[in-house]
Amino acid sequence: MMLLLRKLHLMLYILLLGFFFVISYPLLIFYAWDHQKHYKKLVFIRKWISILAAYGAGIRFKVTYETPINWEEGPYIICPNHTSFMDINAINFLCPVPFSYIGKVELLKNPITRIFFKTIDVVVDRNNKRSAFKALKRGEEILSKGHSLVIFPEGGISDEFPPQLHPFKPGAFRIAATTSAPIIPVVIHNLWEHFWDSGLKFGSKPGTVYISVLRPVHSHDNLSKQEISNLEQQVYHSMLKIWEKESNRHI
């Protein structure tokens, strides 16, 4: 019975997401014609489609900060853990300034995410070194324009349930090393309890999702490979500490 209710809740969320996307579609198409000019408008629409769908389905977000963040002092590289398709909703809720995602190439097949990854976001085929290189360069370009960048450093959602924080890919830290952009680690604690992975296996349920925003980690250019690896480990262990300490409180 519980699984049936969770499946029905998932259907509600998908219907709401589709509804808000469809009514926004004419504006999205119009702005997509010149997405560089209308970058901020596309980010704004993406933000509110996801927030309205989540809130309509009874999913709320509560954010705590290790230290106050002045988002206007960015751009930043935002590095969240990744356990759910709805991590995008959580980050859209969290971040008050324009930003782009770097995400897997499969997102071009999704009718909702496609228009954003064809315009303001960046796709990467992790099995293609050329694609990965181009994605990193595109990420650097976005930061150079003053826009923040979201990269899920685990590289995807693991099949492991319940999820753990997995070792990071180096991409975000290579970009930090070439741009000197500060990294903001973000831990999304219990979203997997409400909506794990795509939601297809366990469905979804309403409730409050807890998010911890950690102290920015500063970098500088001309880092060696070892220094980039050290930066990666520093961010990983800071997130792992909060994940292990706080996540069980919110389940």
Explained architecture:
It contains eight helices and seven strands. The longest helix has about 30 residues, at about 1-30. The model has no long low-confidence stretch (mean pLDDT about 95). Strands 1-7-6-2-5-3-4 form a seven-stranded mixed β-sheet, with helices on both faces. It has a single domain, classed as Glycerol-3-phosphate (1)-acyltransferase, CATH 3.40.1130. With about 250 residues, the protein is of the alpha/beta class. It has helices at about 1-30, 40-55, 85-95, 115, 130-145, 170-180, 190-195, 225-245; strands at about 60-65, 75-80, 100-105, 120-125, 150, 185-190, 205-215. α6 (about 170-180) crosses α8 (about 225-245). α4 links the parallel β3 and β4. Keywords: Acyltransferase, Membrane, Transferase, Transmembrane, Transmembrane helix. Pathway: Lipid metabolism.
Brief sketch in words of this structure:
This protein has 251 residues and is α/β, with parallel strands linked by helices.
Layout of helices and strands:
Elements: H1 2-32, H2 39-56, E1 59-65, E2 77-80, H3 87-94, E3 99-104, H4 114-117, E4 122-124, H5 129-144, E5 148-151, H6 171-179, E6 183-188, H7 191-194, E7 207-213, H8 225-246
Parallel strand pairs: 1-7, 2-5, 2-6, 3-4, 3-5
Antiparallel strand pairs: 6-7
Helix pairs in contact: 1-2, 2-3, 5-6, 6-8
Protein name: 1-acyl-sn-glycerol-3-phosphate acyltransferase
Pathway: Lipid metabolism
Keywords: Acyltransferase, Membrane, Transferase, Transmembrane, Transmembrane helix
